[in-house]
Amino acid sequence: MTPLWIGILVGAAGCYVLKLAGLSVPKSVLERPRLLRIAGLLPVVLLSALVAVQTFSIGSELMIDARAAGLAVAGIAVWRRWPFLVVVALAAITTALVRMWVPGS
Amino acid sequence: MATGAYGISFGAISLAGGLDFWQTMALSLLMFTGGSQFGLIGVVAGGGAPLAGAATAIMLGARNALYSLSVAELLRVRGWRRLLTAQLVIDESTAMSLGRDSERAARLGFYSTGIGVFVLWNLGTAIGLLGASWLAEPRVLGLDAAAPAAFLALLAPRLRGREAWAVALAAAMVALIAVPFVPVGFPVLIAALVGVVAGLLPVRPSTSAPEPTESAAEKPL
Fold this sequence. Notes:
The complex is a heterodimer.
Chain A: H1 3-24, H2 33-56, E1 57-58, E2 61-62, H3 66-79, H4 84-101
Antiparallel strand pairs in A: 1-2
Helix pairs in contact in A: 3-4
Chain B: H1 2-16, H2 21-31, H3 34-45, H4 50-60, H5 62-75, H6 79-87, H7 91-97, H8 103-132, H9 146-155, H10 162-178, H11 186-200
Helix pairs in contact in B: 1-3, 1-8, 2-8, 3-4, 3-9, 4-11, 7-8, 10-11
C-alpha cells in the first residue's frame, strides 16, 4: 500500500472514530468548556493556516505569485456571499489570467 | 444542490492535487466530512507527508464529535445502527436535527439530510473527477488557487467576532513563519497549537497567542 493510501485510510478512520465517539461517550463531556473551546477554534486556525500556506508558499519556500490575486478575488466573492463554486472558480480563473499576462507568476 | 456543487469542486481540486480517482472517492465515501477532506488534499497536494495530511483532517473533524454528542440524545441509537449512523454525523445533518419540535422530526431531519448529502456529495465528487480528468495542466488553469479559495470559503462563516479573527490571523502568521523551517505539511499542524493555546487562555482578557491584541471585546461562543 502506498503512503498516500495509508494517509487516506488513517485520516478516514480517525474522522469516523470522532463521529462515533460523540454517540458513545457520556454527556458530561459537554460540561468541559475548555475542550469545547479548543474544538471550536481548531477549524478556524487550521483553515486559516491552510489558506496562508497554500497561497504564499511552494514546498518550503515563501512566495507571492498569481495565486495571491486569485485569493484576493475569492475574498471579495466570499464577502459578497457568492456560492462556493463561484468563489472557487473565480479564484482559479483570476490566477490563470494573471499567469497569462505575467509569465512565471 | 449546493452539496453537489461543493462535491464537484472537491473532485476537481483533489485530482489537480495529485490524488487519483479511487483515492478521491475513498475520501468522499469513507471520510465523508468536507472540511477534513479538503484539509488532507491541501497538505498532500503541497507535497506534504500523507500522515501529516491525515492529522490535519482528523483535527478538522474534531467538531463532528461535538455534533454527535449533541444529537446522541435525539437519536439514541445502539449496536450496528450506531455504527452506520455515526458516518452520517456532519454539519448539515446535525443542523437539520437540532431545534425540531419532536424527536420523530429530529430523526427524520437527521437521516434524510445525512443520506441525501452522502449521495449528492459522492455523486458530485465523481462528476468533478471525471470533468477534471481531461484538464491537461492544472497550474495553467489556476487550479492551485482553487484549494485556498475553498478553504477561505469554509473559514469565512467561522470568523464571527474579533477573537476568531485574531486567532485566525495568528495561525496564518505562525504557519507562514514555519514554512521554511519544517517539512511540508507541518506548518499547518504547528498552527493548530495556536488554537489549543488560545482555547486554554482565560476567556476574558487577550486571546490570541503571539499577538497581544485587544481581541476579547465581543465573545460569541
